[in-house]
Automatic annotation (TrEMBL):
GO biological process: phenylalanyl-tRNA aminoacylation
Lineage: Archaea, Methanobacteriati, Methanobacteriota, Methanomada group, Methanobacteria
Subcellular location: Cytoplasm
Sites where the protein binds L-phenylalanine: T357, Q395, V396, E397, Y434, F460
Organism: Methanobrevibacter filiformis
Pfam families, sorted: tRNA-synt_2d (PF01409)
Domain Aminoacyl-transfer RNA synthetases class-II family profile positions: 256-509
Gene Ontology terms: cellular component: cytoplasm
Assembly: Tetramer of two alpha and two beta subunits.
Name assigned to this protein: Phenylalanine--tRNA ligase alpha subunit
Entry EC number(s): 6.1.1.20
Cofactor remark: Binds 2 magnesium ions per tetramer.
Length: 517
């Protein structure tokens, strides 16, 4: 037996020991008292008690503790007397023991609203009778003028003691409580659960053997190693439930992360990555895309033109001349072109690129199909800032060029791309001067109950491909990235992505499965 107990003792946690020792001194302490005395905190006391109870060392009883207290109204009544008591006193002071109803308020000094209550209780307590507007004291009333009722006893006792334990009330006070309870607003009963610990035989036996508390070591010191003390130390076990401070490790910005995710999707689909300058010539940004020089998108209100450098270099003459011809009369493509005089100077203008599509035409000019290329970059438009518009944002641009490429392949690539990112998109017919057929992808924003546009795409027109020297079909797309991030991170305002809102950035989970190496 002893051997067994020793084993149990050895396995006791320091909190269990502290609790047992405390109970050994006095079993009647409340958990709160023990928590203060042992400096353990109430949670630790209760969990140590639970653990001791599970080993049959102590028993934990749950008690309901019900206290009665005066309400604010109750305190006032306790100081001034019950309204019916005031009326009874007033009746006692009259010669014939009666008062006219209409004089009641004035004679008994109670407020109008208390009259009804006073009458009700006078009758219920049989202190007075009412007949034809006259209140008359009864025999019972007379004999009660000097005696406190049980309800009054309780009120006074509460005024003195603040609160009383319901289970300890004597019979008078119990009856008083019943009466007061009927009045609704004078007393209140507060129920509280408490626990009481009781040492069982095993607990008593353990205490008899005696418990020593060796404070746990939480740190190893140089000295302990030197003195060889470390061997006899009692090491505090790791508490994996302990509270810990929140830490906010560094992490990639959500926009950066989604860009990396997008890059991975295309790299995994076998696309090669390309890039281009932010400051671009109008030639690559517009002219190479068969966008006429008077096209609305080129207007100052849509495009940022740059003063310095004011002009960009144009590519080789052959390409420039072919492009000029195409704009003017369609060149060899069978198209009529736009039918205007193409102006070199307009093509030389420098712009902050309005899309990344110029990267694609430049890439086609410099590379031979078959090819698959994508690029991610920042683009600029003179947009009014709203929850879904910013004057600068990111696009992912891409092309696939090969003999048998067609519009179905385009839809296939886009579907695959969005699916890999976890989005469901719908396609709508669209128009771009440089593609035919053209389509736009949209996603439904539940918050705004609206479809928002994700980006455009289409098959490059022959007018685009011919001057570049490409004679196979090319599918092309240019998709916005910020809006994807909005949905991915559940933010209803695109501006959030550019605010240094620490709280939001901190709370975004780190791990969304994308590595940033
Ligand atoms: N450049 C278009 C998208 C697009 C790219 C390629 C082909 C067709 C459309 C935009 O910015 O919206």
């Amino acid at each position: 037996m002893n051997e067994n107990i020793n084993k149990i003792i050895n396995e006791l946690h320091i909190y269990e020991k502290k609790l047992l020792i405390s109970l050994g001194e006095n079993e009647n302490k409340s958990p709160d008292e023990i928590a203060i005395e042992t400096d353990m905190g109430i949670k630790s006391v209760m969990s140590a008690a639970g653990s001791l109870a599970s080993k049959d060392i102590i028993q934990v009883n749950t008690l309901l503790d019900s206290k009665v207290v005066l309400t604010d109204v109750g305190v006032e009544i306790a100081n001034n007397g019950l309204p019916e008591r005031k009326v009874l006193s007033a009746l006692g002071e009259t010669n014939n023991g009666s008062i006219q109803m209409k004089d009641l308020a004035q004679k008994s000094k109670i407020s109008g609203s208390d009259i009804k209550i006073a009458i009700g209780w006078l009758v219920r307590k049989d202190w007075a009778k009412i007949n034809k507007g006259i209140i008359t004291i009864t025999e019972n009333g007379k004999s009660n003028t000097e005696i406190q009722g049980n309800d009054e006893k309780l009120i006074n006792s509460l005024l003195e003691n603040n609160q009383l334990d319901i289970f300890n009330l004597d019979d008078d006070l119990k009856e008083g409580l019943d009466l007061l309870n009927d009045r609704k607003n004078l007393v209140e009963i507060i129920d509280k659960k408490t626990h009481k610990f009781h040492l069982l035989d095993l607990g008593i036996a353990i205490l008899k053997i005696g418990l020593t508390i060796q404070e746990d070591a939480t740190q190893l010191t140089h000295q302990q190693l030197k003195d060889n003390n470390w061997k006899s130390l009692n090491y505090r076990p790791y508490d994996i439930n302990a509270e810990f401070p929140k830490i906010f490790p560094g992490k990639g910005h959500p926009l950066r992360r989604i860009i990396e995710e997008i890059r991975n999707v295309f790299l995994n689909l076998g696309f090669s990555e390309s890039n281009g300058p932010i400051l671009e010539s109008a030639f690559w940004n517009f002219d190479s895309l068969f966008q006429p020089q008077d096209h609305a998108a080129r207007e100052m209100q849509d495009t940022f033109y740059v003063k310095n450098p004011k002009e960009a270099y144009l590519p080789d003459n052959e390409l420039v001349n072919k492009t000029a011809l195409l704009h003017e009369n369609g060149g060899n493509t069978g198209s009529d072109g736009w039918g205007y005089k193409w102006d070199k100077d307009i093509a030389k203008q420098t712009v902050l690129r309005t899309h990344t599509t110029g990267i694609s035409t430049k890439f086609l000019h410099e590379n031979q199909p078959p090819l698959k290329m994508f690029s991610v970059g920042r683009v600029f438009r003179r947009e009014t800032i709203t929850y879904k518009h910013l004057p600068e944002f990111h696009q992912v641009e891409g092309i696939v060029a090969d003999k048998n490429i067609n519009y179905q392949n385009l839809l296939g690539v886009l579907k695959e791309f969005y699916k890999k990112l976890g989005f469901e998109v719908r396609f709508r017919p669209a128009y771009f001067p440089y593609t035919y057929l053209s389509t736009e992808c949209e996603v439904y924003l539940e918050d705004k109950e609206a479809w928002i546009e994700f980006g455009g795409s289409g098959m490059f027109r022959p007018e685009v491909l011919e001057p570049l020297g490409i004679n196979v079909p090319v599918l092309a797309f240019g998709l916005g990235i910020e809006r994807l991030a909005m949905i991915r991170y559940d933010i209803s305002d695109i501006r959030m992505l550019y605010k240094s809102d620490i709280k939001w950035l901190r709370e975004i989970p780190i791990d969304n499965g994308i590595s940033l190496e």
